[in-house]
Amino acid sequence: MASSLIIGTRGSRLALVQAHSVARDLEAGRDDLDVQVRVLTTKGDADRDASLDTFGGEGVFVKELERALASGEIDAAVHSLKDLPTSLPCGLAIASVPERVDPRDALISRDGAGLDDLPAGTCVATGSPRRRAQLQHYRPDLRFAGIRGNIDTRLKKLEEPDGPDAIVLAVAGLQRLGWTDRISEILSPEVCMPAVGQAALAIETRNDDHPVLEAARRIEDLPTRQAVTAERAFLHYIGGGCHTPVGAWGRIEEGCLALDAVLAAEDGEWLVRQSLRGQPGEAADLGRRLAEAVLAEAAEATESR
Predict the structure, then answer these.
(1) Coil, strand, or helix at residue 187?
(2) With contact defined as beta carbons under 8 Å apart, do 226 and 283 qualify?
(3) Are 199 and 170 in contact (CB under 8 A)?
(4) What is the pLDDT of residue 290?
(5) Angle at 48 between CA 46 and CA 53, to 5 degrees
(6) What is each CA distance from 213 to 24, 98, 202, 301, in whole angstroms?
(7) Of 83, 105, 165, 260, which residue is the catalytic one?
(8) Is 83 a catalytic residue?
(9) What 3-state DSSP class applies to 21?
(10) Within 13 A of 176's CA, how many CA atoms are on the CB side?
């Protein structure tokens, strides 16, 4: 088993908290294991002003980490799983998925008002097409604006005189940074379905580096792995990515794998929501079957417009 390893991460405050948490978990109970954290700058971090749509494709937060991993500069990469494309480069694998935290989204408003209490015309900022489409479908009387930056940057924009009236962030990030006191309302998945893999971490390694694979698998959480496998299979068969208004939420309930999913029009005019339940060991197939059902209903919705 590996006696030392280097894990790569983005340099944001949240990414560092996540990476150091993984490092501590890897070292726990292993006095002979030394884990170092190395910060790398990704394309998405280097240009924080441009919309993510302008980068052309997925993986803007992971490609530099994967390059360093493939070259041997680092031994593992810690990602927010929602940033990781469903298809990985040849030779790399998700070695471990630790236990997930709260996958839901949170509304943070200037005056603490919840979603239903926001006045018509309130400006809600989000950089996520998924969040915008679902919230626009639920509250078409609100105004929406784009926003980029790390969590602390977005919270500061909320305080600026010309900033938005409210923003939407992942509960998980606020939890990990100790900022849950800023939450005005945790949004129900029935209103705003989480992103695929939201609140879960992924430890990516080379698939032939057996000592590192063994070390990473010690902190695997099987129920989380099964849930996100179903979600990622759903996203793969939908053919969507981070710019598609699509969400999914898997979890183990009474021994079964429950999977809910949403696909929406970008403007929120139509929205398809479906659910399936199956065996945890058939997670990928469950995601595929739900994708087929959602795509069929979405085709009917678009034809009727």
Answers:
(1) strand
(2) yes
(3) yes
(4) 98
(5) 105
(6) 16, 13, 12, 44
(7) 83
(8) yes
(9) helix
(10) 26
3-class DSSP state for residue 142? coil
Report the side by side order of strands in the sheet with 246-253: 246-253, 256-264, 271-278
Token code pair at residue 166: 């409210």
pTM of the predicted protein model: 0.91
Q: Pick from 200, 199, 202, 192: which is nearest to 261 by CA?
A: 192
Cα separation, 223 vs 108, whole angstroms: 30
Rg (CA), the chain: 19
Closest CA to 184 of 165, 198, 160, 162: 165
Q: Which residue has the tokens 């309302």?
A: 185
Pick out the chain residues at pLDDT < 50: 46-57
Cα atoms in the 13 Å half-sphere on the side-chain side of 286: 27
The closest of 65, 78, 80, 85 to 232, measured between CA atoms, is: 85
Q: Are 39 and 65 in contact (CB under 8 A)?
A: no
Each residue of 247-303: pLDDT tens digit? Answer: 999 999 999 999 999 999 999 999 999 999 999 999 999 999 999 999 999 998 887
Give whole-number Cα distances, 272 to 27, 265, 304, in Å.
44, 9, 13
**CA atoms of 239 and 14, how far apart (whole Å):** 28
Distances 193 to 58, 139, 188, 197 between C-alpha atoms, Å: 20, 15, 7, 11
What are the angstrom distances between the C-alpha of 23 and each of 77, 101, 149?
11, 17, 25
